From TrEMBL:
Disordered: annotated span: 440-481
Composition bias, Basic and acidic residues: 471-481
Protein name from the UniProt record: Type IV secretion system coupling protein TraD DNA-binding domain-containing protein
Domain of life: Bacteria
Residue ranges constituting the Type IV secretion system coupling protein TraD DNA-binding domain according to the UniProt record: 24-341
Coiled coil: none
Compositionally biased spans, kind Polar residues: 444-457
């Protein structure tokens, strides 16, 4: 068998089944699968992921349901245990730090800001406005220049004058600096309140949630995406909407995808001579419409030259925006359709006719598919097939080992995170600052991949915590006070749980 192939189906013509798959070079032109729930999409994705893992390939899997992410853990072989990161936000006692604002180069800051705003716009369509977008964009661009900043800084830069001054004084971008110095600073109190209320209200819903705050509020990420991709690692992201909430799932998923996109684009520094030896990274995204902002189109058009290969699946085409839809069908090489509704079938008929028409597509049986397969750089004529049965569960599984490895190597204990965030937001004074320095110096157990590729401890090591802000007067914005109260409540609850466990 050709080891370059990933098998995902078998022909059903004249009852002569022949298994087929797709070559690595053809996968660089991406793969798209659509079909109603229960038709077999998820099993097909799982089979391909397991095949990639067994072949030693690097991949990422974004799962908004969680069941497949957990299932895949059973199929990690012993020889690949050290390659796996299991990112599970619902594991609240061991949050894995992820900071989308960390160490973003000047040329990519607008990409990050656009991606974050895209997901906010998608989540809050009822309150989104041009003014909200304008202010939020300048807030994000300012924070992207400020060392050690996180998304929690959005609240502070809008409400905390001392913090805002520190950020603005650091700015090098003349346009962004002009906004804060010549425009925002001249807002009347009433105008400032009106202009920022919606942003603070909506962003506050995320940052007052301990689950999200403890992930996004750490200044140093524990995963270096570029190094991760170059070394062919496995990233499994469990974004179960039922456990962490739909909006939180969409927010984290979109930001992780943007981070992977930037890591892939950074491969532009690889010489032409070395590019043929660059490892492909296969990114699987189930229900990808949850994470597909308008900026997602640029990933599809640019990913191939950086060896980022996308495998996208969802339920119906209407879920896609008017910008994303043409990007999909204009850039994807392989298309797989399961049974879909009448409206989607009419749209897909353009891709599959004259071999198959809309009536054929709406009547497909479970696990039956129509395929336009990229073969040696050219799209095949559409043909019918069946998906393959699921792999049997291995006799020996290492799920517990993977969970422990991810916690000990990439996560930070909840208590440590909350103390650090509290020091930053509440201002614990000199003792807290000294405690952070001591803790940072003592944490030298193990190593992990961080933003600049250096070794740090499993608890964050050299993650830079900024000097805590000492409030000289009460902050005027209610949302800031609410956030501080939420952090204090969270710390109190953690201590109560800790005391209870000792009894």
């Amino acid at each position: 068998m050709n080891t370059d192939l990933v098998l995902f189906g078998q022909t059903n013509f004249r009852n002569k089944p022949v298994r087929f798959g797709i070559k690595t070079d053809d996968r660089r032109r991406h793969m798209y699968a659509v079909g109603k729930t229960g038709m077999g999409k998820t099993t097909m994705l799982e089979n391909m992921i397991i095949a990639d893992i067994r072949a030693g390939r690097g991949l990422g899997f974004i799962d908004p349901h969680g069941e497949s992410a957990e299932k895949i853990l059973d199929f990690i072989p012993e020889e690949r245990l050290d390659d796996v990161i299991y990112f599970n936000p619902s594991d609240i006692d061991f949050p894995i730090p992820f900071n989308p604002l960390e160490q973003v180069g000047t040329e990519h800051r607008h990409v990050v800001a656009s991606g974050i705003m895209g997901v906010f716009k998608k989540i809050w369509p009822d309150v989104w406005s041009a003014r909200m977008e304008y202010i939020l964009n300048n807030a994000l661009l300012a924070l992207l220049e400020f060392p050690g900043s996180t998304l929690l800084g959005i609240m502070r830069i809008l409400s905390d004058k001392e913090y805002r001054k520190r950020v603005v004084d650091n700015l090098k971008d003349p346009v962004v600096k002009s906004f804060w110095v010549n425009e925002f600073a001249k807002y009347t109190q009433k105008l400032e309140t009106e202009a920022t209320a919606a942003i603070q209200n909506k962003v506050g819903q995320f940052v007052t949630n301990p689950l999200i705050r403890n992930i996004l509020g750490q200044s140093r990420s524990s995963i270096n995406m570029r190094k991760f991709m170059d070394e062919g690692k496995i990233l499994i992201v469990n974004l179960s909407k039922g456990k962490i909430g739909e909006d939180n799932s969409a927010l984290l998923g979109s930001m992780i995808i943007t981070k992977i996109q930037l890591a892939a684009m950074s491969r532009a520094d690889i010489s032409e001579e070395q590019r043929p030896y660059t490892k492909d990274f296969f990114l699987y995204v189930d229900e990808f419409q949850n994470f597909a902002t308008d900026s997602f189109a640029s990933i599809l058009s640019e990913a191939r030259k950086y060896r980022l290969c996308l495998i996208l699946a969802h339920q119906y085409i209407e879920q896609l925006s008017e910008k994303v839809k043409p990007a999909i069908f204009g850039n994807v090489g392989t298309i797989v359709t399961f049974r879909v509704g009448a409206e989607d079938a009419e749209f897909l008929e353009k891709e599959f006719s004259p071999e198959f028409v809309a009536a054929d597509i709406v009547n497909l049986n479970k696990q039956n598919i129509y395929v336009k397969l990229m073969i040696d750089g050219a799209a095949s004529r559409p043909f019918s097939a069946q998906t393959l049965p699921p792999f049997p569960k291995p006799e020996k599984v290492y799920k517990d080992v993977i969970l422990e490895n991810s916690r000990s190597t990439y996560a930070t204990p909840k208590r440590v995170v909350e103390q650090a965030i509290a020091s930053e937001w509440i201002g614990d004074g000199k003792e807290a600052a000294e405690e952070r320095v001591v803790r940072r110096d003592e944490q030298s157990l193990g190593s992990t991949l961080v933003g600049n590729g250096s070794d740090v401890s499993q608890y964050g090591g050299e993650r830079p915590f900024r000097k805590p802000l000492r409030e000289k007067k009460p902050v005027s914005k209610v949302n800031i006070d609410d956030l501080r109260k939420a952090i204090e409540d969270s710390l109190t609850k953690s201590q109560e749980e800790k005391d209870s466990s000792k009894q």
